C-alpha cells in the first residue's frame, strides 16, 4: 500500500495572511499593475484580494484546465472559452494571479498568450513548488507537498 503524500493544509485565515503579504511584496517592489488577471478557478480568490489590496479595480479572468485530480493532469494545459482578447490588455501592466506554480505550465501558457501585447507581466502565487518552470515574481510560500486549499479540499455539494 502506497503512503499518503505529504500535504500542506491552507486555512481561510492563512489565505488572508497570504494575500496581505503578497500584496505587500508587490507594493514594495514598485510594480503598479493596471489589471489583475486571475487564472480560474484557483487564482480567482488571490486576484480579488490583490485587486482590493493594491487598489486595482480592473480585474480579468482566464480559465485554464490542467488538473483533473490529486496530482493528475492533462498532457498540456488548455485555455477554455471565453478567452480574453490580448488586444484589450495592450500596453498594460498585468499581474497574473494563481493559487500555485506547480509545473508552471499553466502560468507559462497564460503569460505567453499575452506576451507582445502587454507592457509587462508579473506573476503572483500563494505557493511555489521547486519544480516549476516559471518562477513567480511574488509567492507566499514554497512547498513540495500537495496543497489542500480551503475551497477545493472537500467534495462539491452538487
Automatic annotation (TrEMBL):
All residue ranges annotated as the Phosphoribosyltransferase domain in the record: 11-152
Coiled coil (UniProt feature): none
Keywords, comma-separated and alphabetical: Glycosyltransferase, Transferase
InterPro entries membership: PRTase-like, PRTase_dom
Domain of life (superkingdom): Bacteria
CDD domains with a match to the protein in the record: PRTases_typeI
Keyword Heme set for record: no
GO molecular-function term, one example from the UniProt record: glycosyltransferase activity
Pfam family, one: Pribosyltran
Keyword Transferase part of the UniProt annotation: yes
Protein name in UniProt: Phosphoribosyltransferase
Source organism of the structure: Nocardioides mangrovicus
Taxonomy of the source species: Bacteria, Bacillati, Actinomycetota, Actinomycetes, Propionibacteriales
